Amino acid sequence: MKPIAVSCGEPAGIGPEIAVAAWAALGNALPLLWIGDPGHLPAGTDIAITQDPSNWIAGKFNVLARDFGPPAIAGTPNPAHAQGVIDAIATAVSLTSQGTTAALCTAPIHKAALADGAGFAFPGHTEYLAHLAGAEQVVMMLACPALRVVPATIHIPLSAVPQALTPALLRQTVDITHKALIKDFGIVAPRIAVAGLNPHAGEDGKIGTEEQAWINDTIAALRQTGMDINGPMSADTMFHAAARATYDAAICMYHDQALIPIKTIDFAGGVNVTLGLPFIRTSPDHGTAFDIAGQGKADPTSMIAALRMAAEMAQVRHG
To answer: Which of 2, 149, 152, 318 could form a disulfide linkage to 173, CB 3.0–4.6 angstroms apart?
Structure first.
């Protein structure tokens, strides 16, 4: 298969070391092409530097080399690296969009360093990728073998959720998720569960009115299109094993409603997937971990899972 493009992420974080650790664990079975400054990789990494992304060398850690300037100091982000980090992401997107690489896996970035060093104006990876792709609406999925969850609203205060959550947003979120389950996960007839916004899904209006006011009708309208969709469900009873067996993805109404169950079920192995892009993008579901960077303590489990999922999705999408 074609290699997975891996953008370097924050050089002072754990991104470079978990990329190398994942490569060591996966071997030649899953080729990857790391894009960044080779000087930021752990000492002793068996590197093959290339300027031709199609020329992948087995048994080596393949690097599309970029010069970021100053060396990286583990745990201390340097704004001078910001433009290099941003350019690495853009290069990875370009390679994947052109089909030179099969998918994109992004290592964690540090948004403050990017803003300070290069005026990065995006809230995070997802919004920047959507901008590069010209995608009007994208959806964040968190996935592990036992669960896939999609928050309809993400990084906003809980008090802002009822205003941000609209029938149009819920329909778009469900529609993008449904299409991705077919196109990228190979599920012919996806089953989708939708959580209620309020405790006990409003309990017939006694603990909130949004379900009765519009959520019930929105889900019913989606069901009328032929979609296998159920809800709104009480979020406190939809994530145990028996309940998870009844659906392929759960649509949640806000960030913690989605992320608490998946991080409880598989904290180390969760993968962040961006749905709605014209290319496949995954990422480990953790941050830069400056406190342990460069100490050999970083767990590559999520990066390994992200690379494997990217490869599996590419196989489904491209054959």
So the answer is: 152
Residues of the binding site for a divalent metal cation: 155, 200, 255
The domain spans of the chain are 1-139+278-319, 146-265
Give the pLDDT confidence score for residue 29 in this predicted structure.
86
Is the Cα torsion angle 36, 11, 115, 258 positive or negative in sign? Answer: positive
Q: How far apart are CA 297 and CA 207, in angstroms?
A: 45
Which residues, in sequence order, are CB contacts of 100 under 8 Å at separation 6+? 2, 53, 54
> Rounded to an integer, what distance in angstroms lies between the CA atom of residue 152 and that of residue 235?
14
Select from 153, 151, 148, 166 the least CA-distant residue to 218. 166
Average pLDDT over residues 167-173: 98
pLDDT of res. 56: 84
Annotated binding site: 125-126, 155, 200, 255, 263, 272, 281
Q: What pLDDT does residue 120 have?
A: 96
Conformational region of residue 276, where left means phi above 0, alpha means psi within -120 to 50, and beta covers everything else: left
CATH superfamily for 1-139+278-319 is: Isopropylmalate Dehydrogenase (3.40.718.10)
- Tokens describing residue 94: 């370009």
